[in-house]
Amino acid sequence: MSTRVQHALEQLKATGVRITPQRHAILAYLMESMNHPTADEIYRALEPKFPSMSVATVYNNLKMFMEAGMVHELTYGDNSSRFDANVSDHFHVICEKCGKIEDFIYPSLKDVEHTAEQSTGFKVKDLRMELYGICSSCKEQ
Question: Which residues form a coiled coil (predicted)?
Fold first, then answer.
């Protein structure tokens, strides 16, 4: 088990959350795969090991992880939500053909937030930037 997963489990325990084998598996899958899976993909990946686990169990745990600030939900149009266990500041590039999402790091956009606040009077609380294109696998086809 990675130290990142271990640290996340310790954080949950500290808030009084019981660590079930399913909860552990869902969190570990999210943190180790980093491929922005849907709840259904998580369920299908873990179902062989946990045949009695339901899709509802996956959703309920994802909701709890989001409330704990450990997972972000990514929604793009009508597609199923995807889940990201990387809660550090980063952005996404999305393939328009296959839907693959990859993380990328870019310097802070604080100047954009500040300009938006100055010109609108809003207090900016969050920023989400997405770039769209064709991934290398789809380009080759």
Answer: none
Token look-up 């600030």 returns 69
Instruction: Decide: 74 and 120 in contact? Cβ < 8 Å.
Output: no
Per the structure block, which two tokens stand in for 73? 């939900």
pLDDT digits (tens, 9 = 90+) for 9-63: 888 888 888 889 999 999 999 988 878 999 999 999 999 999 999 999 999 999 9
CA distances (Å), origin 104, targets 48, 69, 86: 32, 20, 11
Residue environment code for 92-118, b if the CB has 16+ CB neighbours within 10 A, otherwise e: bebbeeeebbbeeeeeeeeeebeeeee
Asked if residue 1 has pLDDT above 90, the reply is no
List strand residue ranges (DSSP E) for the chain, in order: 72-74, 82-84, 91-95, 101-104, 130-133
